[in-house]
Amino acid sequence: MVLSVLRAVRRLLRSAVFLLWLCGALAFATVSSTIWAVQAGSTAAVATAKMTQMAAAHRKEMRRAVARTRAKTRAKARLKRGMTAIPVIGLAVAAAFEEQEYRDWRKENPGGTRKAYVCESAALTAEVLDEVLASLPERLRPGPDTLAGLVPECGPADPSTDQD
């Protein structure tokens, strides 16, 4: 009988030790998982903050680049206007600018002719002409008949008559 009582106590102790070990292991796993989750959340928050900061810096940099490009374009236009305002040199400079723009256009339109370039330029110029004329003082605006005579005839292109 004593032996059976000792076996029962031994089983009980074994079960109690196992249960205590199991509770300890589960508590440790819970604490470890909680620490890992907090660290992962913290890492994600830091990464999100850095990405937001980088995106804001990129937008600011892009705005600066666009503003700088626009300023350069305006400066080029002012220089061109200034150079073309000089009577004799202005004609040569204007012709050089026009020739360079034609060469750039030819790179984009390899089969294009001068007539096609002139017609395309005239069409684009006509689109913005009203805005430009509206910005001029009334006494300096040319009449509509004056400008109509300067617009080239742009019908279907005849390759045999086009000259480069």
3D structure, described in words:
The protein is mainly alpha-helical. The protein has a domain at 91-156. 81% of the residues lie in helices and 0% in strands. The protein is built from four helices and no strands. Helix 1 crosses helix 2. The N and C termini lie far apart (122 Å). The model is unreliable at 157-163 (pLDDT under 50).
Q: Describe the main β-sheet briefly.
A: none
- The amount of beta strand, in percent, is under 5%
CA-to-CA gap between the ends?
A: 122 Å
| SSE series | HHHH
Helix content: over 70%
**Number of distinct beta strands:** 0
Task: Assign an overall shape.
Answer: rod-shaped
Class by alpha and beta content: mainly alpha
Radius of gyration (Å): 41 Å
Number of helical stretches of at least 4 residues: 4
List low-pLDDT spans: 157-163
Mean pLDDT reading:
81
Keywords:
164 residues; mainly alpha; 4 helices; disordered C terminus
Summary of the model, kept short:
This protein has 164 residues and is mainly α. It contains 4 helices and no strands. Helix 1 (2-85) crosses helix 2.
Topology:
Blueprint: H1 2-85, H2 87-108, H3 114-135, H4 144-148
Helix pairs in contact: 1-2
